[in-house]
Amino acid sequence: MAPRTPPAQSVLNPILLWILIHGGDPAPDAKTSRLSAAIAINSLAQHVSASARKEIRQVIGKEIAEAAGALGK
What we know:
There is one protein chain. 71% of the residues lie in helices and 0% in strands. The chain is an all-alpha fold. It has a domain at 28-73. The longest helix has 23 residues, at 50-72.
């Protein structure tokens, strides 16, 4: 049997990989958790239909910007 390879998305996105490895263990703080969740949603949205992806990206782009701003404070 050939060895299984991880999905390319999990290798390319270290935050999503962290979430997958730790099974959703909480982030060190609420600000990091918010940003991690937003980035994971954005990454996973690549696998839905184009119309759904457009709707998700409108909302999640704003959330990522706000979460990153809060993390920087």
